[in-house]
Amino acid sequence: MIRVVVSPANIDLAAEMALAEANGVGAVATFTGLVRADPGVVGDVETLELEHYPGATEAALEGLACEAQTRWSLASVTVVHRVGPMRPGERIVFVAASSRHRGAALDACAFLIDRLKTDAPFWKRETRSGTAAWVEAREADDDAARRWT
Amino acid sequence: MIRVVVSPANIDLAAEMALAEANGVGAVATFTGLVRADPGVVGDVETLELEHYPGATEAALEGLACEAQTRWSLASVTVVHRVGPMRPGERIVFVAASSRHRGAALDACAFLIDRLKTDAPFWKRETRSGTAAWVEAREADDDAARRWT
Amino acid sequence: MAIRMLYFAWVRERVGTGEELVDPPASVATVAALIDWLAAGSPTHAAAFAERGRLRAAVDQVFVSLDAPIEGAREVALFPPVTGG
Amino acid sequence: MAIRMLYFAWVRERVGTGEELVDPPASVATVAALIDWLAAGSPTHAAAFAERGRLRAAVDQVFVSLDAPIEGAREVALFPPVTGG
After folding, report:
1. Distance to chain B for A52, nearest Cα, Å
2. Partner-chain contact A53 C80, CB within 8 Å
3. Could you report the predicted ipTM of this complex, rounded to two decimals?
4. I need a surface site. Which of A10, A47, A61, D46 has the fewest CB within 10 A?
5. Could you tell me which InterPro entries the record lists for this protein (chains C, D) (predicted)?
């Protein structure tokens, strides 16, 4: 099963886990990314806004999910990414990989989130003390994504 | 936060996730192990029974959780392990690690489940076609645990 | 043939629109040449595209480097490095 | 001094009990020697401990190898390799 969702709706973790577990598998690895308040010199993050490239974003995530499923023979791959405005503590992204044994699920989960960070067209804009600013890409993300090539 | 639970109760995933997320963190990685029916020559698994060493098991899990928290500066570590009889599809184990960034959470989650497999005193007994048999340890588990030393 | 340009994040804000139709001459053969051609025609575009090293591109929704050809392209997107997850 | 022996999984089944108190002589200095002493005193224990390579041990709830000393130990557990998770 490949499940890719890009949506402004809250991410329902229990529902996503139930889908990932519903395959008679032995192992489910997940990663959840949350909005951090991340106090800075100009105050805490009040709002985080996620912009995406409709069509291309979904295609990129489906491509990643297929690549993971083929590479690790997974029973299921889930990638749910929120877009639009959100607040600290809310979920931005949820990825899950399920398989018979744990090694494949854990590796695929790390692969999915590392590659998502560099390969999927999303852009973050933070608002602190009423002022919005685009978040800069992290070089560490490129390094993490390169591990898998 | 370190949370270690060894109990015959069902693992409540949503409640455990809520605890792991309640620290203003940016990343939560989880691993869930499920009972597999795992069809074999003597039929499917009907029941899986988990025996443990009361006291020593909890201490071993707390030791692992502390080691992970120190090694990766985690905001929270959760290890919940079920004991007693259970059926295919039910959760045996849930581990979660949360941190600011994803690398620490993902690595700590893999560490916890790899080391739990070799260092915590649990024993599995499967019943297939009415006959119970103790599950043999896998050499692959020793190899996975050694990665972290 | 007209190309549908898409802009995202601060590129969109600096260009002042998320989408426009453009019709470059046939001599404009790559994404980089397209950027040069757009910048030459408008100070707003020139300012938006000033930091060439911070621009990324997709041609017909496929991520490409700036030296990629645009022959036959129907949609070209320009945007900063991605920051999802 | 008496030692509380604990047995788990198939070791428990083969010994026929999960727990017993034993009082080895002072010359029994290691876990391996304790196993030998128990096996010498009872055919059931001898059978349960026959595959020495498949036995693991803990002394006072700390995992140890079979050549570990048992001086002062109050609790010694014998069991197969663990299979949790």
Report:
1. 20
2. no
3. 0.91
4. A10
5. Beta-grasp_dom_sf, Mopterin_synth/thiamin_S_b, ThiS/MoaD-like
